[in-house]
Design goal:
This protein is of the alpha/beta class. It is built from 14 helices and 11 strands.
């Protein structure tokens, strides 16, 4: 293991330990959010209210020393409310840019599916190019700009489903479920004392300038040619599977490769294994595949389809 990969593992373990002081019982969710941050991508977090989605992102921002902003998406939210707008300054006799909340490192788009398509699309350029165009002027966003969008999986009244093109911009879909009984008991006990979980109670482990360095270290994680072919074969299998109406595109191939690499780093290894690919195939593909109506009526889930695809594609030795 190289010195850089060892350093990466050390920093990642410190980050995880610090976040766990606040977020109880969501280790898999934490690791997948870290994978998105490490690879410079974005994550779609789905979970019922009260599971700690906002607290998780706010805590990660504090531990990593990055800026944080939250946007509550509503039906009347306009694109300018996200990106900002130019206001005429009478004293200077010129237009002044009032920057919106998108000018930050970690952006929490809370209940993103409650805003109409016009407002949702305001994020597309920012997510892909890390730039924002306001009144024909292009402005650069921070290098660490990461979108964490949340959705409520049980309430669809008054919502606008995300179009496929926008869902494809998210590398991962992270499902945040209920904690176990003992974990929820620990949370309840802490609420009665002075150590209730708060993002402000954690220490900063890294700085905003550390993330680009960690991303460079991640490139030293070895991916064998056989595994590269395995990733491509898994994605291509989604396009011909009998139950899938719309398969995953080339961006999914890139996402699965990056996610597998990050998973290996978080696990403390300097090489990617087939198990890394299998583990990350679910969050990478879950929001990208569209099943045929007849199979949806039969109750087939995307998780079952991904499992079948992984069984069908030969695993490299």
């Amino acid at each position: 293991m190289t010195e850089n990969v060892t350093q990466l593992n050390t920093v990642l373990e410190s980050i995880r330990a610090e976040v766990r002081k606040v977020i109880i019982g969501q280790d898999q969710v934490l690791d997948r959010c870290l994978a998105a941050i490490l690879t410079g991508q974005h994550a779609l977090i789905e979970g019922t209210p009260g599971t700690g989605k906002t607290l998780l992102v706010k805590t990660l921002a504090r531990v990593l020393g990055c800026g944080f902003a939250r946007i509550q998406f509503t039906p009347d939210l306009m694109p300018a409310d996200i990106t900002g707008t130019s206001v005429f300054n009478l004293q200077r006799n010129e237009f002044t840019l009032i920057r919106g909340p998108i000018f930050t490192s970690f952006l929490l788009a809370d209940e993103i599916n409650r805003a109409p398509a016009k407002t949702q699309s305001a994020l597309l350029q920012a997510m892909q190019e890390r730039t924002v165009t306001i009144d024909r002027d292009t402005h650069q966003l921070p290098a660490n700009f990461t979108v964490f969008a949340t959705q409520n999986p049980i309430e669809y009244e008054g919502t606008y489903p995300l179009p496929e093109a926008q869902k494809d911009r998210f590398m991962l879909k992270v499902s945040m479920g209920w904690p176990e009984r003992d974990q929820e008991l620990t949370l309840a006990q802490r609420m009665l004392g002075d150590d209730a979980p708060e993002a402000t109670s954690v220490a900063q482990v890294a700085g905003a300038d550390t993330l680009p360095q960690m991303q460079r270290w991640l490139q030293e994680i070895v991916v064998r040619d056989e595994l590269l072919q395995y990733v491509v074969d898994v994605i291509r299998r989604t396009r011909v599977h009998e139950s899938v109406q719309v398969g995953a595109g080339p961006r999914a191939t890139q996402s699965l490769l990056l996610a597998s690499r990050a998973h290996a780093a978080i696990a403390g290894r300097d090489f990617v294994t087939p198990d890394d690919v299998k583990s990350m195939a679910y969050p990478v593909l879950e929001h990208r595949l569209m099943l045929r109506p007849e199979y949806e009526i039969e109750g087939l889930s995307i998780t079952e389809v991904v499992t079948k695809i992984l069984q069908d594609v030969p695993v490299p030795r």
